[in-house]
């Protein structure tokens, strides 16, 4: 087939001929500028849509300067300062912060917008007992020696966090055209008016632009720098920079109660997603989501009225947009684009409801850090594609694209060849599947945590797709699910506490103790544990990863230890003797050729008694356990970093837990775990793909038949079942050469 | 010198000549039988004291059988049983227990002495809602589906735990003379009368015995077996077997409130020493300690009246004796003997106040498990001696001895030769030191936990000196201290919350989060943290090991994070960027030649800011940190398994924390960390000893002088400073050949 399209190319000035040739080769039907660069004139001559970045809440620094009170704000906390002597204690709130980014705001009612808290007792100190020495020093008249104090302070954001990062990283101080862009707050009526008129004007001035790519809208995720201008605190989900005095006033009117600085500062944890969310914070999210989507809707309307599409970049100023939030579909956004760092981040984009299309930015960016003599751009492109393809098969992105400097990429012709192949393979998934998702999910998997739907595919994440030692063990669950043949829903504890939805076949609770992902105090809720116990006992299924249902109470650390058949050793049960026998031959571990890799593991875990089948152990601790519970089943996994081995293990664990292991053999799967298969009933085709950069021979099982395929590095194969019905027996049936 | 004595030899029948020869060679001045064996007639002919084991609360099985109601009792908990359907729930309390050991006692008011608890809500179920089906089944009329229930049940102890273990292990069922010994409770007046008269009679019948070695008195530590007769639960400090209906009644009279079964069962944790002790349990310990010591005092009196000494074996039925408890000295016990498994267990015996002498049982026992062709009895003897010697130097045991079958040991003449050397070296420590402890402690170290003095040298222990993966990381602190030149006190949080005692130079808090050793909720006490902060700020010193002061509250996990300069990553601060620079050149780590071994470590730990000096890191986590705090200092160590390296590290950390590092060089120490030195001012001698089985060359520093010694495997050297004044400069001064 020769259909083209679905691909966006970054272009730049001075390479018009190469652009035309590459458009043809890659089948690109859209072009875009890179952030902060201009589109070349050739753009409007191409038979392609033209995207252009647009920043509603920064970029017009003349406006910003003319409105010094319109800065967006942060709520921040000073260091924890102990009082070591009797008498006065002076706290420098700016100690550890970057003065070019953060400016304490004392033009407000500080008795309301600032707070001094005794962190030894948790008490808020009456404003009558402290005062401002100057803009950044608070004096506490009579501190108690031996107590630790903090100041929650309200501060102006003097420099947009992302622009600041780019400015510092790229030495933009050397470029006289660059300025330090100050963000302005959409809540100020004049600024809001300005945002709308500026967009209208911009649309008029840019007839060549078909798609306005908003980056993003109004409030940046929490990204704060330290006294030497390095990153101090980053929370890709953080709402700390969405605050203002007027917003807090409005909130009080709508929700009937007032928030305090501490509701944002949250003991210094700033309501990060690992914290079990407090009702106040959930209310604030709702409030901000509602407000931001209302305003975004207006800008989208202006965009549409100008005859352009509105596209949202999932990042930067995306706070309050919440693509899985209740108000998002009302915006009428045409598209969402986001960076694809893994299968999970791919699904985070491709599953977004309420938009016409989704687009993934693939790696590597055409930047000098990869495109140099030592770099491996082809390898990076392959790995990015392999990660993403698993997700795309299950839930296709509508479009793909790259970013960076095209002039750099064309110096690597082998890379361009590989990208050409990837673009074609991407299109073929849409063409061959006839636009219908594969239908081989035997049931829906529910991922259970404190956040539920609003953090779909966004769990255990600190800063987008960055690796952290403490999260990869859990992210692997999500990464596996992103490419496995199951429907996946993200459920909150509230969603299930009065009954698990009918469609759910298996509930997964994965996370470390004391976090929102494991659940922490949610498991102290009798209603929740009672419902889940009954549901499992009635034939449901529960998979716990790491420290599932962890909450020390009433003689158990894992509150569902009776369901899981295992308990965590917290050093309170060292006196209890543990006897373990490992069952090496089990359905769940049947494809596990080597020792189970559980990443950082789930701490010391032991089986409660001989009714728990232990399937893997390390250093005396249970890594995998299977347990029958009434008519249902439970599986414990100590951790599940992503790998083909672990993804298959989860695949099997889900079948076993759901009491469907008898059906696994004839359900669609490959015997070679480094390959996967998707089945498309209406097209009557299967798609087999190799998740590795080595050649793989695999046997595809499904419908009682077997197909054999040999797939080259990162290769894939469409098999039309009308043409190739497979073999009923277990014989070899090579349907393809290496591709 | 040719002085003899201080050594006890186990003897047996049929080897009279060998006994006499060995008595001479080892300088033994006492002999003993092994548990359960008779003394040979030769005993009374020897110029030696004769010890004999004696069991007050078991052994007379005719008496036991005649008094079926006099069994000692346990409080035990059934398994946690979920109700999975509506209606009745029947719980088999004996599921998982050994019927030969445990017999549910239903001859009591079960509505008071048994309890059914809903472990989902924590509520105690009214006795009107449950009933006994038979002796071991409880029926709950209306269980709530999805809730988990347990039964706390009162049970008779039908078989003494240690005798049962020996019986099963040694196949005593083949020996018709052996019976299963049933324990009887000293609280029963008739049994108490019998105990006294039996001891009187026994003393009369055993004129050859000089020392009655009580094994021990009345209540066994908690040791419960499972349904197949294997160990199920072991707590060397457990009081679960000290209960009875009359004791509980008496308790209520004395303490003014009633205890419930749950006060003993403690959610199934049975108040094990890793649990932060509840006031009720501390009251029960006090109550039992008072009662047991009163009764023991009477038996000691009978012993003395018979012209014999009373010796207590620290083990088996030692519950309530509490050698560091307030009432222990009143007993008038002559001696305590215990097994020496480490330096810490050696100090646990040698530091006991209120006795005339202490005696250590050294390893290996003369048993076939070591004394065989593959065994290494000399190696075991050396390692036992090396471990113990460090402690003996600091706080001498008065006597030493071995146990087991002498007939076995004499088949290994090289072993006997080595034991002869060890006995002589042991005596020389007493002779050369002139009975005065070395005087080189610059200050007292306070080990701070929830238990304090009563668990002196007994911290972090599950079952005497047994190794557990979860404890060795912390036991190393105690093991190091047992041989380091500091005075050591064990302090409870109550001991310091209103002020740290003057003598304390450094406080150490070592343990894992959520345990009594770290402190758990004690750190939620404002008074405690305030006092310690002020004390450190005023020039005190705090060393935290593992998860010190851990208690999640008010934005901190380590409540003294401001003092320590580090915080534990509990996944709530992943969003905070961490910047670490390792200082490789520091006083504390000056002798650390290789990577620091922190055992299981203390989890992910990070420095709060650049004021914290990070001295060692692993996998991104701080292992050693030093922090100034006001006029004081703090050190964090992620773990400290015992080794010569880590003992030296602690030695230095104590000096640094106490702000005395300037004095270290001239205070007594060896530059070779595998050797140690003790200084005896009144004798004007130093004792240098090699803690390894390899030859070590070392330079001893002290008083501005230097001495050089070369010490053979496990060797030691006394240096008389009058004869050898050392060299002022750093020159070589070999004072000894290999010995």
UniProtKB/TrEMBL annotation, chains A, B:
A Gene Ontology molecular function term of the record: 1,4-alpha-oligoglucan phosphorylase activity
Pfam family name, one: Lact_bio_phlase
The residue ranges of the Lacto-N-biose phosphorylase C-terminal domain are 668-719
Occurrences of domain Lacto-N-biose phosphorylase central (ranges): 445-661
Q: Name one GO biological process term.
A: carbohydrate metabolic process
Lacto-N-biose phosphorylase-like N-terminal TIM barrel domain: residues covered: 5-438
Q: Sorted alphabetically, which NCBIfam families does this protein's record hold?
A: 1,3-beta-galactosyl-N-acetylhexosamine phosphorylase
Instruction: Spell out the protein name for this chain.
Output: 1,3-beta-galactosyl-N-acetylhexosamine phosphorylase
Q: What is the taxonomic lineage of the source species?
A: Bacteria, Bacillati, Actinomycetota, Actinomycetes, Actinomycetales
